Amino acid sequence: MGLSNLKQLVELKPSLLHTSSSLSVNHQCQLLGINRSGLYYKPITNNTKQTIKNHITKVFERIPIYGEKKVHQQLLEDGYKVSLNTVARYRQELGLKAVLAVKQVNTTIPIKAHKKYSYKLRGLSINQANQVWSTDITYIKIAGGMVYMAAIIDWHSKAVLAHAISNTMDSQLVMKVLNDALEKHPHPEIFNTDQGSQYTSEIHTKRLKDLGITISMDGKGRATDNTIYKK
């Protein structure tokens, strides 16, 4: 008997059999031309695969720059027992690909009138989370142009604390990322940026100073100062 017939049998079982009949269940099954074992068939639903796929999708939506190895590690940390090959296969089935960001466009455009802050991290021992946060903007090539992604990273844990994507590289983008990170995590002692106008703007520096967070900025032309972000 095929699977579809078994399912139909389960649905029709109450109307097919008469428990009060003088005929035994075996005899009734013989008369109906069905196998008695089919009466006890119960469809089994396995939601494990779909549950893992749903979680993979959530990780992608939260951190689109993660490749399959990072996603696999995240799933393990979240309690899912799944192999790297399985994660890769599920991502392929879902059509998910990491958003690759390559920093080539000049995203650091200073404004002379804005106040610049000194670099506070040289020689500093960073030994705990939320001691130093760092942020930067990069661009992502897409069909027909590009978009900009801003992200904040914890120097100690290397965790991406917040990120956002926009088609404009302005203060609104960096403020969204900053506010998201501040709402979700304990505030850092030091916040490091480059000297781009988005970070030297009054709205950005005031937000940090109002919270008592020390502002640190890479030296002019010192791209290596913010190396942790660019790795």
UniProtKB/TrEMBL annotation:
One of its GO terms (molecular function) is nucleic acid binding. SUPFAM superfamilies: Ribonuclease H-like. GO terms for biological process: DNA integration. InterPro entries: HTH-like_dom, Integrase_cat-core, RNaseH-like_sf, RNaseH_sf, Transpos_IS3, Transposase_IS3/IS150/IS904. Pfam families: HTH_21, rve. Residues 124-231 form the Integrase catalytic domain. This is Mobile element protein. It comes from hydrothermal vent metagenome.
